[in-house]
């Protein structure tokens, strides 16, 4: 267990070092599964390990955001609340907001302008304006069941209302990056870019 955790931490630290050397402003990752433990127990474990990661990066002056991602399944650590709390309690941690995962995790909710607006409002309230000015967002089409994420789809083959999301991002004058995680990668990135420019 310890070895597996250490190997995961090393991968995050190595990725952060490389990304920082390339001039990136953040790196993101999926933090883990609950694996039969309570969310509160897993939260404390992940918090302690992330604290260690950040301390090791700070010792080497690697100044880059480390971003745990909102995840798509109820078995995975990574609700919006968990990620926000980590960001509040630790230095150098900020959320990676994967809106499609959140949509899948809620089995179809979080798919309207009002709901996207509400998420951005929560981020601003809990983490301050900077959370909306240096955003790291993931979007893709997504197939899901009652248990959450099944697999990623291209936006046009999914029910994800990306235009509503882009409207909300524009309304809050958000800054940062929106990364397409659709199977067609660039195509949906361009689709969103074009749509955003036409708003
Ligand atoms: Zn993602």
Bound molecules: zinc ion
Strand content: 15-25%
Portion of residues within helices: 40-55%
Describe the global form.
globular
Distance between the termini: 49 Å
Helix-strand pattern, N to C? HEHEHEHHHEEEHEH
Q: Identify the strand order in the major beta sheet.
A: 3-4-7
Low-confidence regions: none
Please state the average pLDDT score.
97
Broad structural category: alpha/beta
Number of separate strands: 7
Provide the CATH superfamily of the largest domain.
Answer: Divalent-metal-dependent TIM barrel enzymes
Task: Please give the domain count.
Answer: 2
CATH topology of the largest domain: TIM Barrel
Q: Cα-atom Rg, whole angstroms?
A: 17 Å
CATH architecture of the largest domain: Alpha-Beta Barrel
The CATH class designation of the largest domain is Alpha Beta
Most strands sheet: 3 strands, parallel
Count of DSSP H/I helices: 8
Describe the structure.
There is one protein chain. Helices cover 50% and strands 16% of the residues. The chain is α/β, with parallel strands linked by helices and 199 residues long. The chain folds into 2 domains: 1-71, no CATH class; 96-199, TIM Barrel. It has a 3-stranded parallel beta sheet with strand order 3-4-7. A two-stranded parallel sheet has the order 1-2. α1 (2-21) packs across α2 (39-59) and α5 packs across α7 (162-171). The longest helix is centred in the N-terminal third of the chain and has 21 residues, at 39-59. The chain is globular. The N and C termini lie far apart (49 Å). The structure holds zinc ion. Zinc ion (ZN) binds at residues 69, 98, 101, 138, 181. Zinc ion is lined by residues 69, 98, 101, 138, 181.
